[in-house]
Design a protein that fits this description.
By secondary structure, the chain is α+β, with helices and mostly antiparallel strands. The chain is built from two helices and seven strands, in the order βαββββββα. It has a seven-stranded antiparallel beta sheet. It is globular and about 45 Å long.
Length: 148
């Protein structure tokens, strides 16, 4: 069974600033819901290979993705390893004004088996849906609230 998450937000920060925040994977544990660890393994030629650990209620799972960087407009996400049969998606950053943008997260994923689906199904869906909100809140913390 394939799941889809399609979440967007209008923010009072430039597309470039939002791109920079999302692209800073090592900072995720400080503000992304249920992200207990993040590690960048390699970063070169428009690609980042990184792992993220998701933990909730004593259950921990780690997954690794190859992120295809198209600065400053999008970050493609492709599964390398983890508790998924498939995982791919894209962050998009659409400029609306000098200090405003639309941030979009699109994810399609399928768990590798019934145990992974039972253990991670609710957590991953909740976390992925909350991620965009977390980035919006973090942008206000890092860049200040801009309501012009």
């Amino acid at each position: 069974m394939t799941y889809r998450i399609d979440r967007s937000a209008l923010v009072w920060h430039s597309a470039e600033r939002m791109f920079a925040l999302v692209n800073d994977i090592s900072g995720y544990p400080g503000f992304v819901p249920w992200c207990s660890a993040a590690e960048v393994h390699d970063s070169s030629h428009g690609e980042i290979l990184a792992s993220i650990e998701v933990a909730k209620g004593g259950v921990r799972h780690r997954f690794t993705t190859r992120n295809l960087i198209e600065e400053p407009r999008s970050i493609g996400i492709e599964l390398v390893d983890g508790p998924f049969k498939a995982l791919h998606g894209r962050w998009r950053f659409e400029p609306l004004d000098v200090n405003a943008s639309k941030v979009v997260l699109e994810l399609d994923f399928e768990f590798s088996g019934r145990f992974a689906r039972m253990a991670l199904g609710g957590v991953f869906s909740q976390a992925a849906n909350a991620v965009v909100d977390a980035f919006c809140t973090q942008a206000d913390r890092v860049y200040g609230k801009n309501r012009t």
